[in-house]
Structure formats: structure tokens, C-alpha cells
Amino acid sequence: MTAPTVISLRGATxxxxxxxxxxxxxxxxxxxxxxxxxxxxxxxxxTTLNLISGALPxxxxxxxxxxxxxxxxxxxxxxxKGVSRTFQLVRLLPSMNVLENVMAGAVFGHRRxxxxxxxxxxxxxxxxxxxxxxxxxxxxxxxYIDTKRVELARALSGETEVLLLDEWLAxxxxxxxxxxxxxxxxxRDEGRTIILVEHVMxxxxxxxxxxxxxxxxxxxxxxxxxxVLSDPEVIRAYLGDxxx
Amino acid sequence: MNMKKxxxxxxxxxxxxxxxxxxxxxxxxxYLISLGVSIAMYVVLATSWALFSGPTHYISLATAAFxxxxxxxxxxxxxxxxxxxxxxxxxxxxxxxxxLVGLATLRLSGxxxxxxxxxxxxxTRQAVTWYQNQTGHKGTYVLTDLTDPDIYWQxxxxxxxxxxxxxxxxxxxxGFALRIIGDDEDVARHVGINTALSKVALFVVSGATAAIxxxxxxxxxxxxxxxxAFTPMLSFQVVIMALLGGTGRLWGPxxxxxxxxxxxxxxxxxxxNQTTLLLGLSFLAIVYLLPGGFVGLYDRxxxxxxxxxxxx
Lengths: 244, 312
Prior knowledge:
The complex is a heterodimer. Chain A is an alpha/beta fold.
């Protein structure tokens, strides 16, 4: 028995003038699946994520969430329908403390709460990611991995259906990386549906059920993580022709 | 809405201050009362301006446009409709214009928005002048039996309402949404906030308020013409006063308005040609010395005191 499809891309295309950043890309993400979106730099992974989250409008193609079309909807409506994300460069709300940052997701996200209930829920999420003790800290005082945690908590606190992580593990030192991978593992074990754009190979191997590989805007491979990573064409895309 | 103990205390303080301010006309001193009218007027304008511009960081120079529209609503309607009906009508028209302007321009980023709002005031002024030239009117008379104390009390009531509204917004989802928008509009969109609608809502509040103030002040002008009703200086003064006080707190603009108005009054009576110099110097002082206004200064001092007591 297969789980129902949550996110589905059909021929998603994004053009910037003459440059086709995402070229006719199609794939499905099923419930409880962790899908890795990988490929060399500039291959269109982040742009694909931006099309799903509504940060950029697609030039062509269809994106659906549980069968309903979300192509062309503004980011705020896609967020309300249950897609939330973190950003490639961490974006926190500098004038607010940690708790308020997380509440932003709880108040306006997919499942909306307000007042004491939003605060309680935000605290629970902070507890889960191990930051309850820093709820009142200002975001300027946080270490790098903690800023990433807060952003993740904000994305989770709206009880989102799909989580989009844009290089969430990038820039972490080796100790932090282990913590980070454990944290995503924990989310995976909870049965969340996650699409992650990632470069860290260890993370991809241990976290992703399936991978979609992109190169120059096109999807060049799709399948279980092990199969995809040993595919000669994928290796060629990453390392060039000589090493394949 | 659940009220905390501190909320009741603040509310009590606000009411007491307002009641105390309402005693001013009892002095019978015409100069003091007229100064009071100016201060009350700028408190309302600067506070409502900061409700929108404070959290969003959009600098609006449209105050004069809304104020002038309110003045003209009063000027053209007073012969036909009662004064009291014209106040809400001025507010409605001001709010409507703000909604239209907001929907058209709040997608613009910072600088373009500033220029547009400045242009809006000028355009409205030119439109009214053109209309008057076409119809042969040169100005409009607003004749009422309202005295300075009446106008002063009306402005105080309006100030009270603006503070109440600002306090309610600050505790609402809308207020939270605006703070998020002010911090990072992209994040706001991605957590599910309707950023355009939130900004327009607050712009409407400040536009409607400025129009009501214009309508209230019109009887004081007696004779209104475009140059006085739409003076761009008003927009700049409101911005400077609000920034001088600081937009981080509801009471910020208030503590900017009072010293600025007194200083402005002193300078314009002794050195009438140097008022713009004051405006320029205040702006420099804010930028270099008081980046968060008096509110920012207060917060910094409080933070320093807290750190000192933590270390001791």
C-alpha cells in the first residue's frame, strides 16, 4: 500500500529571461516521505523549492498540494494550506525574541492559534527542538545552529503538512552537523513529509528515502537514495565526465 | 481579550493624563490654549502616523494630503451639513483615499513609497487649485461658533481614541503581523500573513485620522485655501516629531511632539525665517544622536541600568 501523494510537480518550469532555471521538472512526494532534492550548484534546486513555496511564480507547469492546485498562489496562501519552509540564508525576526519568532508560525500558519494557546504551542515546539530554555533570549545572542533551530521551529509551529528545508545543514561545524542531522531524523521518525535541498552527502544518505537529482534545471535521475547516488549520470553531473 | 493588571494601570494613567490636559482651557490664557491646540493636533497626527510607519518602516509624507482633504470636506460641506456629521465623513473620505493609495503603492519598496506620498499631497493640492480656478472660487470660508477650547477638547478626545485604538492594535493579531512585516516582509509572507492587507489597514487608520484632524482644524483657519490646507511642511513636521519621540512605543510620538512644538513656537516667534533650519537640525540630531528617538534612548538607559544591577 502506498501513502497518498502530498506534493506533486508536473512539468514545473521557471524562466528568468532567456535562462531556464527549472526545466520541465516532475516528481511526487508521498506522505511521510523525506525527499532529497540534490544536484550541483546552480542546478535549480532552490528555485524548485521557491516554486513550491510560492516565493516565485512558475512560468509553466502545475504544482498540486493534496490534489489541489497551488501554482500561481501567493506564498501566504500556500503557507496557510500547509507548506512551510526555511531559507537558504537564515531569516529570523531581529526585533523579537525566540518565542515570538516561533509564535509567528503558530499564529499565521496552517493551524492558526492566538494568545496563550499560540504561546503554549510555540513553547512545545521549542522544547521538542531543545531550545525551551532560550525562549526569552533575543535572536542576536544565538549561536549559528540555534538560529537555524529557531527558523525550523517557526516552520514547524504552524503544524505544516509539508516542510521545505533549503540547505538547512549548510554552514554547520562537524559537531553541529551531527546535532542537526539527529534533529531532522527526529522529524523524519515523527512521520513528517519533508523536501530537503542539501549538499551534505552523509545527511542525504541517512535522511532521504528518495532523491531527485537536478542538473542545469533538468531532472536527471529519481529513485531510492542508494540507486541514485551510484547512477553514472549523477556522478558525471557532480564530478564531470573524466571521473565517471 | 484578557486584561492584565499592568494594562489597567496604563489605561488609568492615560485617562488621568488626558483629564489633566483637558483642564488647560480653564487657565483662560489664549496663547496657552492656542499652543495646546497645536500640541494636541500634532499628537494625534504623529501618533496615528506612527501606528502605520512605526512597525512597517514605510515613511509616509501623505499626512498633508489627508489633512487637506479633511479641511476641504469641512470647508465645502459646512454650509449644507452639520459640523458633527462632517467629521466622520471626512474620516471616511480620508480612509477611502488611503485605501486606494495603499492598494496602489504599498507594493512599492521604501523610497518609491516616500516619493509617491509626497507627490500625492502636491497632486491633491494642484487638483483643488485647478478646480477652484475652473469654478472661479478662490478660497472657502468655514464659519462656525467653535472656539479654541472647543477645538482643543475635540482633539483631546480624538487623541484618546487614537491611543485606545493603537493599544488595541498592539495587542491584536494585526499588530503582531505588522511587527513581523517590519522585520522581514518575505518571512511574513511565508508564514501566511496577508502583508498588503495588513499594511493598507493601518494606512487607512492614519489617513482617516489625519482627515478628521483637518476637518477639526478647519474652523480655526476660517478662510481655507490650498496652500494652507495642503502645506507639505505639515507632513515633514509630523515625521520629524514622531521620529524624535520614537516609534517603538505608543507614547513615543507624544514625547517628541511636546518639546518640538514648544521649540518650533519659540523659534517661529523670534526668528520666523529659521524654522526650516530647526527642522533640518532636528533631523540631523535624530539620525546621529537619537536613532530610536527618545524611546530608543529610554530603552538603552533602562538596558544599561538592568545590566549594571545584574553585575552588582
